[in-house]
Structures are given as structure tokens and as C-alpha cells.
Design a protein that fits this description.
Layout (H helix, E strand, L loop, with lengths): L5 E4 L15 H14 L3 E5 L5 H10 L8 E7 L11 H8 L4 E7 L2 H6 L5 H17 L3 E7 L1 H7 L1 H14 L3 E6 L6 H15 L3 E5 L6 H11 L3 E4 L13 H11 L7 H4 L2 H12 L16 E2 L2 H9 L17 E2 L7 H10 L12 H13 L7 H12 L7 E11 L5 E11 L2 E9 L2 H13 L10 E9 L10 E8 L4 E8 L2 H18 L1
Helix pairs in contact: 1-2, 1-12, 5-7, 6-7, 8-9, 9-10, 13-14, 16-18, 17-18
């Protein structure tokens, strides 16, 4: 297929209806700018009149110079038995001054009678008069035929009649909606083919994911030849969500050959996915196709060995196409190939790969089984390999440490760390205070090393994460601590695991310092 597909994003409206998602006004404006930069054709900003935030968005977005995207205001057809020029919802849509208005109307008799509580003819008049009103106002009108597929299965003649009314009223595009998300791909295929032949008009598709096939349904409709696909970033939406544009778009472009985004824009897809997750304050789905952190991650040793020879053995597309990257995890399933691949990925030039012995691989597997994870702890991994291949330089040894936490009479909580080190033949004994045990240990280590190793002053701790590994064990649970450190040239992660959180922290902290000194 060599066609152009229009992308209609409804993250800011439909996506914001997902449980746990709440975008601030500034979030919505930032997302709109990013989606425009990505090259989307339409950005649905919200439902004016439903809340003050959406109205403010439409006011503010007018001051943002968009390169391509058109902002759409979303709302319903006029109320039953109401003059369209006096309907408050219609007037709220007009007040946004957006170039595009998206109207949804009923195409299922069940909804006409149960939800609208009106008759079939009045529903058709509501569709006709609402679209005609906005066309007279010079607007581009997109008509969302709500619950169309359920309506078609219930009464195909009436469902199709609603589409003809929308077409005759001047709608620029008619979108077929699987609003309950219950249709199967074969049903979408059959029905869209019928409508395409019957209407011979610009069509779009809008699907929900209640049956887990929203993306598949969208791709099926696109393959038949609809002109517009609707969806949300990361598939956010009511109930089980909408079609995930981060899945739909790469499938259209890379599998169907449908033009929708430029090659460069597609490379931003992973970044946009993670940005929207961050703004929504939600954890990214690591197993999300194309953009998830695990989408191109290889854990098994056989897999790692194969992709080192040809990535096609276990990857359906190049991760760089969507801005993602290939990762090989060193784990209990790893073999020698996994370790060698990881060394190459980190540009670690081990003098002799044959030095990567079975003992080293078994040690890595043993540590993984204890709760260590080297995926985000490349510093610890590099130290481990250097120790196993004889390339590690032992510059100092820890003789012991102690941490005291004290609450004083003035209410201040003080942590004090004492560390004993051996540097060469000298014993170095230092004490330092901090605002917490880890901070105190960090300061005491620096104090002990700074005179002999000036480069210590160049590094700083940039992040500290704690993960409880066996939650059922309560306060006796094993803890994994991940520390991220940085200097002017590099960032590295180190890891420590122990039932004692202070010890786990110290192991990770010690690795951070040793990595710096062994660079």
C-alpha cells in the first residue's frame, strides 16, 4: 500500500478519561506541541463546556504556532427537541474557535431510545442540523458515528442511514466507532468493506480495547482503505483504553507501507510514549510493543548469541526505527554470548574474550538468583567482569563501617557514619555526618579517599532507588538498591542487594566509587 493516512489523536480527551490519568493544563499544552512536532494531523483538545480546564486549553493553544496539526473541539450533536442555534453545547464548541469540530451522534437504535430517549427520526434531525450548522460557520466537521458497529449488527439499514445523513449534511469525514470495544477483526473487516462500497466517502476508524484487539481492528480498517485512524498515545482511554497509536502507527508505516509519519518523526515515538507516561504520572508498560523497554530486550543466552550474528533472528524490525534500542540482559538464563554482547554494547574492551570464563558466568547467574540485576547497573557489571578477567585494580579495601542514627534534644535527626579503609599499608579511619545513613556513608567514603584519589571530587550521586524483592517477608525482606552516579563525561549505575538496606546501599555506593577509580 502506498497511501497517506491521517492521524487523529484523542489523548487529551479520550485518553484523559482513563482511570488514574489527570493532565494539568500545562501538560496538555506540552503534549499538543509534541504531537504537532511528531506530525499528527489532528489533536483533539477536549470537550468544551464539560470542564473549565478544557476551555482554557482552547484559549491558550491558539497562541501556540503549530506546524501541521489542526486542533479539534469534541462534542455531541444538539439536544433532542432543541434549536441548534440555542443549544449550549453547540455554542460552547463554537466558542473554542477551533478550525475542526468533531461531533458524535448515535447510530445504534438502542442508544437512541435508551440513552437519548427520543425517536429515530429526531436523532437523524439532530445529526443533520448539528453538522449543517458548523459547515455554515466554515468549520471542518468530523462525524463520529458512535457505537456504529453494534448499531450495524442490530439494524444495518438505520445505522447506514445515519451515515448518509451525515454525508449529505456536509461532514468532511465519517468515523466508524467501536465504542464498546467488543468487535472482532473479522467483523470490522466485513462491515467496513460494506460501508466503503455503500458510502464511497472519506471514512475513519475509532476503536476501544475492551476485547484486546483495538490496534488490530484499526489496522484492519486501515488496510481496507479508511482515510483516518483515531487513537491515543499508549492506548489510554476509558475502561480498557483506546487503540494505541504507538502500536498502530509503526504497523501502518513499517508493515503496511502506509504513509503517516516521516522516518525522522517515527524515531521520536518511544520518547513521546515515555514523556506522556511521565506527564500522566504512570509507570511505563515495559512490555508495550515497539516502544516498551522490553520490546527489543533479549534475556536468554541462545537469543543473545543469535542476534549478535543477525538481529533478524529475534527482532521483527530495527528498534532504531521507532527510537528504541536493543538490550541484552545478563541474567540467570544468560550464557557466554550474553556477557560478550553486553561487553561490546558498553564498549568494554576485554583484552582476551576467552578470559570470560564459566566461573564468571556462573557467578553472574548466582548473583542474579540472589536478587542482583545488572540491566541498569552497568558500573557494577563492568567491575564484576574486570574482577573475573584479572583487569580490576584493587586500590583500597574496606575494613569495616558503622552507622548511627540519633535524634537529638533539638528535634534534629542526625546520621553518623564511621568507615575504616586500608589504602596500601595505611589504615584510614574517618567519621562524617549526613541527613541520612546513605548520605553519611557517602561523605565518610569521600573523606577517606579524597586525599589519595583527587578524581573522587568529580563524581556525584544523581539518583537512589530502593526495591523490595520479597514483599511477603515484611520488614525482613531482601532489598535491592540502585544508585546512579555521574561525572562530566559519564553516567553509571551500581547495585547492591541485602536483607539490610544499609548494607545494600553501601555495596552499591562502594561500586560507584570503585567504578570511578577504575575508569
Amino acid at each position: 500500500m502506498d497511501t497517506k493516512m491521517k492521524i487523529y489523536d484523542t489523548t487529551l480527551r479520550d485518553g484523559a478519561q482513563a482511570t488514574g490519568v489527570s493532565f494539568s493544563l500545562l501538560d496538555k499544552l506540552q503534549i499538543a506541541k509534541e504531537l504537532d512536532r511528531l506530525g499528527f494531523d489532528y489533536i483533539e483538545g477536549g470537550w468544551p463546556g464539560s470542564n473549565p480546564k478544557d476551555m482554557e486549553f482552547f484559549k491558550r493553544v491558539k497562541n501556540i504556532p503549530l506546524k501541521k496539526a489542526k486542533i479539534a473541539a469534541f462534542g455531541s450533536t444538539r439536544r433532542k427537541n432543541t434549536c441548534v442555534e440555542k443549544d449550549s453545547h453547540i455554542l460552547a464548541l463554537l466558542e473554542t474557535e477551533t478550525p475542526v469540530v468533531t461531533l458524535f451522534g448515535k447510530s445504534w437504535i438502542l442508544h437512541v431510545e435508551k440513552a437519548l430517549r427520543t425517536d429515530k427520526e429526531e436523532n437523524l434531525r439532530m445529526i443533520d442540523e448539528s453538522i449543517s450548522f458548523f459547515k455554515k460557520m466554515g468549520k471542518e466537521v468530523i462525524f463520529d458515528a458512535e457505537h456504529f458497529f453494534d448499531g450495524y449488527k442490530d439494524n444495518p439499514l438505520y445505522a447506514i442511514k445515519t451515515l448518509h445523513v451525515a454525508k449529505d449534511a456536509g461532514a468532511d469525514c465519517i468515523v466508524l466507532c467501536d465504542s464498546n470495544g467488543g468487535c472482532m477483526p473479522y467483523e470490522i473487516d466485513q462491515i467496513v468493506r460494506v460501508i466503503k462500497e455503500e458510502l464511497r466517502y472519506s471514512l475513519g476508524i475509532h476503536t476501544h480495547n475492551d476485547s484486546g484487539v483495538a490496534a488490530a481492528n484499526t489496522i484492519v480498517a486501515a488496510r481496507i482503505g479508511v482515510d483516518q485512524v483515531q487513537g491515543t498515545i499508549n492506548g489510554y482511554g476509558e475502561r480498557c483504553g483506546n487503540a494505541d497509536l504507538c502500536v498502530v502507527i509503526p504497523n501502518l508505516k513499517l508493515k503496511l507501507g502506509v504513509g503517516c509519519l516521516s522516518d525522522e518523526a517515527l524515531k521520536s515515538l518511544t520518547r513521546i510514549s515515555r514523556l506522556v507516561n511521565e506527564l500522566a504520572n504512570l509507570t511505563s508498560n515495559e512490555h508495550q510493543p515497539y516502544v516498551g523497554r522490553s520490546a527489543f530486550t533479549h534475556k536468554g543466552g541462545i537469543h543473545a548469541s543469535a542476534i549478535s550474528r543477525d538481529r533478524k533472528t529475534y527482532e521483527h524490525v530495527d528498534p532504531e526505527f521507532v527510537g528504541n534500542k536493543r538490550r541484552v540482559i545478563v541474567s540467570e538464563l544468560a550464557g557466554r554470548s550474553s556477557v560478550l554482547y553486553k561487553l561490546e554494547e558498553r564498549n568494554l574492551n576485554v583484552k582476551d574474550p576467552n578470559l570470560v570464563s564459566a566461573d564468571l558466568i556462573n557467578k553472574i547467574k548466582r548473583l542474579e538468583s540472589q536478587g542482583y540485576e545488572f540491566e541498569a547497573a552497568d558500573g557494577s557489571f563492568e567491575l564484576l567482569v574486570k574482577k573475573g578477567t584479572g583487569e580490576y585494580k584493587k586500590l583500597f579495601a574496606v575494613d569495616g563501617f558503622r552507622v548511627i542514627v540519633e535524634k537529638r534534644d533539638d528535634g534534629k535527626l542526625i546520621s553518623e557514619a564511621t568507615i575504616k579503609l586500608k589504602i596500601g599499608n595505611r589504615l584510614v579511619h574517618t567519621v562524617a555526618e549526613g541527613n541520612g545513613p546513605v548520605n553519611a556513608l557517602d561523605r565518610a567514603l569521600r573523606k577517606a579517599l579524597q586525599d589519595d584519589f583527587l578524581q573522587i571530587s568529580e563524581m556525584h550521586l544523581s539518583d537512589y532507588k530502593v526495591r523490595i524483592l520479597d514483599t511477603g517477608a515484611g520488614t525482613g525482606a531482601t532489598t535491592r538498591v540502585l544508585i546512579e552516579s555521574a561525572d562530566k563525561e559519564d553516567r553509571w549505575g551500581t547495585v547492591g542487594v541485602s536483607p539490610n538496606i544499609i548494607e545494600a546501599s553501601f555495596i552499591a555506593l562502594l561500586d560507584a566509587f570503585e567504578y570511578k577509580l577504575n575508569k
